[in-house]
Amino acid sequence: MLLSSLLILQFVGVSGDKTCAGKEVQDLDDDCTKIEKNPLVFKGNQDEKMVREKVKNINYIASGIEVIETDLETFDYLKHVERIQNSNGPAMLFKKNKNLKRLNFTSLGELKGKEKEKDIVFENDHFAKAFREETDSFDDFIKLELIARKSHLRNKVCSNEFYQFNNKKESSDSQTGAIIMIVIAVIFTIVDGFLFWYCVKERRAKKAREEKKTNKVMTDVPIGTDFGPRTPASGTTTPSATIETPKDKHI
Description:
The protein contains 6 helices and 12 strands.
């Protein structure tokens, strides 16, 4: 009886696990317990009830998380998750969250990004400011650092491998390149237009000069000038004159 119960419990435990590929949270399958392959992404402002329902059973994330462009002040959707890892990059990425101040990972026991890279990255994120100015934000940061240090068996406190704050001016290079291309296109358009106008002008001027030269030749010939006998054109006849003799005149 006891053995049967254990087998049933083991079966229920195994059958209750569901591994899902990471994606944006609104597209995630229901009842996932483990996330792998791709990061679990929280992007933009989603319905809170929907998000909590989607992630409520997750306890292990093997491919990292990304929190991008939200209005959240406190991120606590994953406070029940026990392990967050990522062998391909940072375990956590927070990017362009304009109000973020608190990071609540109450149950987290393991935080581990790619070896010799960063465990947690903040990119143009408000938390980077809050971390320096507010005690609660600093405490959240230190708790995550301690978890990561134990996960990697590091001795150094706040190792450079734990975190990174990036303040990038995104797309500045691409914007500059686009502006340059537009300027070049405008210049070429102007040059092409000028060359076309110049060619048309020269063509018209040349034609006018030729017409003027022809008219001058015609007007220089005096009226009534005899150009000599003209040879009839081929295939034409000229009228013949009748020659009268003296004899004909007396008759």
